[in-house]
Design goal:
Layout lengths: L1 H26 L7 H9 L3 H11 L6 H26 L1
Helix pairs in contact: 1-3, 2-3, 3-4
InterPro entries: DUF1294
Keywords: Membrane, Transmembrane, Transmembrane helix
Protein name: DUF1294 domain-containing protein
Length: 90
């Protein structure tokens, strides 16, 4: 279980950094990371990293579907953590 939590934390750090990189590329008017990739990373248990990255870098905060994806991603993370905890208890 500890390994799974560490993996989730590392994944969320990667998602957080990806939002930062995309914001930097946006400001520099360079090639960007696709919205589809950002949303997919968010929904694959990267909600917390995406939310923090979006808020910290002021990136994609005006798009409602990103905000929805952030909270769905956090919910997915919570379900995964609960499932891991439940399996460990059982």
């Amino acid at each position: 279980m500890k390994l799974a939590i560490v993996i989730l934390l590392i994944w969320n750090l990667i998602v957080f950094m990806t939002y930062g990189i995309d914001k930097h590329k946006s400001v520099a008017n360079k090639w960007r990371i696709s919205e589809k990739s950002l949303l997919l990373m968010t929904l694959c248990a990267g909600g917390l990293g995406a939310l923090l990255g979006g808020e910290m870098f002021h990136h994609k905060t005006r798009k409602w579907y990103f905000q929805l994806a952030w909270y769905l991603g956090i919910l997915i993370q919570a379900v995964i953590c609960y499932g891991l905890w439940y399996v460990k208890q059982g």
